From TrEMBL:
PROSITE patterns: VWFA. It comes from the Bacteria. This is Cob-chelat-sub: cobaltochelatase subunit. SMART domains: VWA.
Length: 190
């Protein structure tokens, strides 16, 4: 098969399993429609426990790296004790965002509903600029929020990466994924 490996989709298909040929997703080398990977990263206080925030930042960094190689667009949105903050609005992926990701701290509450509201607005704006664009929303969280988020309807594909405590899981991320028809993934946890 020609083209390049589409790493964000490949990593999503792979999950925690060892990489196999069946997990590989390919992109064709063409100047086709734009693609956006919108990463919504939970940096609340609960994510600081057990190294979950460090794992989530590493996961987000890998997504940015792969989007840079694939020539796609990336947006990165944080939500935690400092509220909802954009690290980068939708733009062509660049490795220059990686130091900002690695330097992120965490703490405080989990304004998930507001984060998804802002993500929805960014998805809509990207669609207006790139009518035939593909938009994937990556929600990286432990699900430890009392808020009841609604499905971000303007994402073509939604992946929830569940960083919940494996020893005492709440299961909210899986519930959201089932309710929204989203992909649900667990990263490797210590």
């Amino acid at each position: 098969m020609g083209g390049r490996i589409h790493w964000p989709r490949t990593l999503a298909a792979k999950g925690v399993a060892a990489l196999q040929r069946k997990h590989l997703h390919w992109t064709l080398p063409s100047a086709g429609p734009a693609t956006l990977h919108l990463i919504v990263l939970d940096n609340s206080g609960s994510m600081r426990k057990g190294g979950r925030l460090a794992l989530a930042k590493a996961f987000a960094s890998r997504l940015v790296e792969e989007a840079t190689r694939a020539g796609t667009h990336v947006a990165l949105l944080l939500f935690g004790g400092q509220g909802v903050q954009w690290v980068q609005n939708a733009a062509p992926a660049r490795r220059s965002v990686l130091p900002r990701v690695s330097g992120l701290g965490g703490g405080g509450g989990t304004p998930l509903v507001e984060a998804l509201r802002q993500a929805q607005a960014e998805l809509q704006a990207f669609r207006r600029r790139h009518a035939s664009a593909s938009r994937t929303l990556w929600l990286l969280t432990d699900g430890r929020s009392l808020e009841q988020p609604q499905l971000p309807v303007d994402a073509d594909h939604l992946v929830i990466v569940d960083f919940d405590d494996p020893r005492r899981p709440l299961g909210r991320c899986r519930q959201w994924a089932e309710r929204w028809g989203a992909e649900w993934r667990r990263p490797l946890m210590p």
